[in-house]
Predict the 3D structure of the following.
Amino acid sequence: MERQQDAIVIAFARAGSDGLGRKSMAYDRTTVRGPDRSNLLGQARWERSISIGLGLLVLSLLVYMLFVIAGTPVSFDGAMNLQVAAALADGQGYGRFYDEWRLFPREIQTNAPYIFPAALVFAVFGVSLATAQIVSLAYLAGLVGIVYLLGRRLAGRVPALVACLLVLLVPELARLGANGYGEVPALFWAFAGLWSLHAAIDKGGGWRYFGAGLCFGLSILTKTVMLMPVGVVLGLFGLAFLFTDRVWRNPAAVGAGLLVPVAGWEAWKLWSFGGVAPWREWWQVQLDGILAQAGVSEGFQDSPGMLDKLGTHAEVLTGSLGLPVWLLPVLLALPCGLVFVAVLRTREEGVWSGNALLPLMLAACIVAYFGWWLLVTPTEKAWYRRIFNGVLLVALSAPLLPALAGRIRGRVGLSAISVVTVTLLVIGSLARFPSIEPSQADVRKHSTRAVVKFMKNAPETAKFYGYRWYSQPVFALYSGRRVHDLDKRKYWIDAEDGPHYFLVDGYMNSAGVVDKALRGLPHEEVLTDSDWGRVLVLRGAFELPPLARENVWARSEVRFREHAYDAVHGMFSPEGDGWRWAQPLSAVLLQHNGGDVLAVHGALPANGDFRFAGRGSTFGMQARVADCDLEWQYPDGSGRFEIEWSLAGCQLPPQGDAVTVELRTNAILKGTDRPLSWVAHEIRLKRL
């Protein structure tokens, strides 16, 4: 009887699989007697204590991070995303207003799985500093939760909690993991897909495979860049499928799950555009941008050679992580360890189980992410944000590796994980905690509130302006006021209702474009809170600076297709045909040859979609020669036009001197990133 009490029988089932869901169970019985029993119980208590301590630490850090983030203004890109959510909540559709309303704006690169929940929050609670962060914070908490579930399934409770801790300590998680960004939501769905796929491989069930595909589809739908890691995962799953008994319904279930959200999204987009042609055009432009940003086509500045690129990008990465460059190869050796574990696990179990396949998938995703970012992505786009999800993958995988290896090689994982934990926690803590320092957020919050209050209290007729890319989405989101592009509206400020206010935030300040934006515009500062919040009132319309006359050989007639002529303002560089696009206000220096007629030859784009100043609806042009204002003229239709003005009665300089000719129009093309009005062919002075 004592012998029976001294011995316990531990029965455990090792679940194998054919890699596609059919279970095979092998039962072992191990007799553990008195001394070993006490060791096991002691180890269990020790692991339980570590788990409780780690769990409390993870929970405390997560709560602190959520507290710091809650109520702070979202980021520039995040505000653009949330402007779409606010438009949906208002019933306007999936679009954004900046100078004009656009459906599915191309600058929005975080999509429905983030935007739709945010729209629901705005519809119920309205837009505020607090509500704008709710969905981001929910996804951040969800990411920690799914990391724990995935880590526990692969390696156990302690490694899973360490993975959660390291994820929370990843540099800039408080900034990039919330604030309207889509990286964490996309990774949440990818991890959820891995978790479901692991269960499907080991336990079977077509609905689990379908759920995995659905999560992968939502991940891709959130951020297009997730095509890379999801493609890697599905590629490895397909290879494992080829080397096992083939049950076609399982991969088909994954594919069906993936297609449901993606196909539904594209169908809704097609319906919103109202036809195939605009939908196809949208995708053509989008694909060009995706390929250029990915580095597989030209479009952005890049390093001259592969080694130069590798060195430059490695310095950017280690600088962002707060690590010495020499430690980067050590960090990237992690995938090799994961592959080793996967191979050993497969040899031990004899099948592609979930525990064997998922480490291989994580390793392949890490290699793909870092290989792409270090060697392929253009240097101009080598931002830490674009490798952020790769760093999160490393944070998840690092504590799992020694635990998985320890299970294969005699349960030495607990001691190994302690070393890894201490090392990574020290590195992570040094890099992590400054990124959630609340002081900068407090300054930005105060300035944002001041500007938003100013905008809300401004008259209904007031107009607000950003400048080019700097569209002030944060101010626009929280105030609910529309913002226009000063670069395209500055020509007619005095012809429209006002007052007119130019908005400046920290992003515009750091880009150094404020002076350029205000050049030629009379203005006065009316609100200065900090670099994160300034408002200037515009007192009049844009005026061109005087054309230089010294050391300039002026012509009496300029044919832009034939002459490389630099004595101009408000005209862009020649196109391939030599002609030049002109802005709504342009000027050219001509030599007075005694002519008494000003002739302008140009062209309007066929079917050009113009926005007109004031209440106009027809393209018109006015000329000013010296100080002589000439009447408005309106060419018929699109295509080429010729306009002539008589200079009779104008006081012109002596013959042979230079004279400035200003040309003002009342229209600007919509849907362009430059203030384009008309195409200049020829400008000349001639005799009747």
